[in-house]
Amino acid sequence: MKNSKGSLMRPFPAPESASRPVTTPLFPTAVYASDTPDMLDAQYAGELHGYTYSREGHPNADVLARMIDRLEGVPEGITGTLAGSGMGSVTNVLMGLLAAGDHLIGGSQLYGQTLQMMKRDLPRLGIETSLTDTTSAEAVAEAIRPNTKMILIEVVSNPTLALADVAGIAELCKAKGILLAVDNTFTTPHGFKPFDHGADIVIHSVTKLLAGHADVLLGYCVAKDPELNARLKQFNVCTGMTASPFDCWQAERGMLTFDLRFERAQATAVRLADMLADLPGVKKTIYPLHTSHPQYQRAQALLNGQGGNMVSFELDGGRAAANAFARAAEAISFAPTLGDVATTLSHPASSSHRCISIPEREAQGVSEGFYRVSVGLEDPEALLAVFAQAVEAARGA
Ligand SMILES: *Cc1c(COP(=O)(O)O)cnc(C)c1O
User: Fold this and answer.
1) How far apart are CA 362 and CA 349, in angstroms?
2) What was the pLDDT predicted at 338?
3) Could you tell me the distance, in angstroms and rounded to a whole number, from the CA of residue 35 to the centre of ligand 1?
4) What is the mean pLDDT of residues 205-227?
5) Taking residues 68-97, what's their average pLDDT?
6) Which residues pair with 83 in a beta bridge?
7) Closest ligand 1 atom, CA of 206?
8) Do 216 and 84 meet the contact criterion of CB atoms below 8 Å apart?
9) Which of 208, 337, 338, 372 to mutate to test the pocket of ligand 1 (most atoms within 8 A of CB)?
10) CB of 394 within 8 A of CB of 328?
């Protein structure tokens, strides 16, 4: 290759080396030089593998996508597409595959911005949308119209950790030729593998548990059908959703420890949930593997024994108790994310669920005393101690 000899402007390219770096090099280049028009033609024709322009693909994105493909058990020959954030990938799927006149059904407890897109942006483009209770396949069946093209679900809902009726919904989709898309961010491929449960499309916010260090925003989507998957890729390239090489490189490093982080966070989450369930001042604790969970049987069937790192609980004493708790738990970041190495606390009534009317919120089980915890990697004893004393402080509020 000519450019291995350098160019007039950049005369000293990286030196040749018979040995290879053990880590993936970072490729912060917008463009790749080919030797001749024939060579570029062959690349575009797919006869010769070579990168051309980084919006269309680059090594750091390919390495990261393959790591997620492998976790998700993506069919041979298919590889996912990355975007600059999880919402980029939601957009990639919804706008990349649906057209004016199509109808989309989504869970009424989907991620907030996904709900916004379904309520505001898709209808503007002529795509009909309905939100429904995806914990009930009957409710979903009632929402189906002749033009329903896709159903989008999250398996475990945020923040009340309700489980979708995946088996029932997958059956409906199969019977009616509707695409089933699963946003697997919360459950991760460790807890749930959508393709084993009838999904056609998988979406991730890589920002959360997969990258895991709250220092990168990225998304991923993949369709198991080659033609649909190619459309996802085309729409991504055309709309400029491409993830930056640096972010992919950073996320790759995070992914190397995904299994270990998940197991550690989950083990601590189980202990935290057990402790909270028995603590005076806590009205209710929600964890998928607790027998008190309203869909305990379904959690057993779907989650492969992996309850995950998310725990929700409700304090007695409403907003005053919630304020006292956050003040007393100052060693834990009160921050609207999940899946970081550090434990984070979210208070839906003052953040994600602010704009929902109080009766509607209460109907979802989100009261003023309700907190959602994303458990991280702290020393479990120290973390449990912080929660115990903060709950105690909230009791006096
Ligand atoms: C965070 C999140 C998203 C959006 O991802 P970003 O990377 O923040 O754009 C989508 N779905 C779920 C379930 C999420 O938790």
Assistant:
1) 10
2) 95
3) 41
4) 98
5) 98
6) 219
7) 7
8) no
9) 208
10) yes
CB of 154 shorter than 6 A to ligand 1: yes
Task: Map residue 359 onto helix, strand or coil.
Answer: helix
Q: What's the CATH class of domain 258-395? A: alpha beta
DSSP codes joined into one string, 216-259: ---EEEEESSHHHHHHHHHHHHHHT----HHHHHHHHHHHTTHH
Mean pLDDT for the stretch of residues 178-192:
97
Q: Count CA atoms within 13 Å of residue 231 on its CB side.
A: 14
For 395, the enclosing helix (H) or strand (E) is helix 380-395
List, as one string, the DSSP characters of 142-198.
Answer: HH--TTEEEEEEESB-TTT-PBP-HHHHHHHHHHHT-EEEEE-TTTHHHH--GGGGT
> Residue 109 and residue 261: Cα distance in Å, rounded?
26
Distance 205 CA to ligand 1 centre (A): 5
Q: Find where tokens 């961010």 sit.
A: 185
Calculate what percentage of the chain has a pLDDT beyond 70: 99
Give the length of the chain.
Answer: 397
* Ligand 1 pocket, mutate which of 64, 82, 85, 87 (most atoms under 8 A from CB): 87
Check: pTM over 0.85? Answer yes or no.
Answer: yes
Instruction: State which ligand 1 atom lies nearest to the alpha carbon of 87.
Output: 9
- Whose CA is closest to 90, among 122, 50, 57? 122
Q: Is the minimum distance from the CB of 111 to ligand 1 under 6 angstroms?
A: yes
d(CA 166, CA 155): 7
pLDDT at 267 over 90: yes
Q: Which two tokens stand for residue 115?
A: 């709900």
Domain range list for the chain: 37-255, 258-395
Ligand 1 nearest-atom number relative to CA 90: 10
Please tell me the distance from the alpha carbon of residue 136 to that of residue 153, in angstroms, as a whole number. 12
- What are 281-299's pLDDT values in tens digits? 999 999 999 999 999 999 9
Q: What is the DSSP string of 33-69?
A: --SSHHHHHHHHTTSS----BGGG--HHHHHHHHHHH
Cβ pair 45, 66 in contact under 8 A: no
> What is the assigned CATH class of domain 37-255?
alpha beta
Minimum-distance ligand 1 atom for the alpha carbon of 338: 15
Is ligand 1 within 6 A of the CB of residue 135? no
Across the chain, mean pLDDT equals: 96
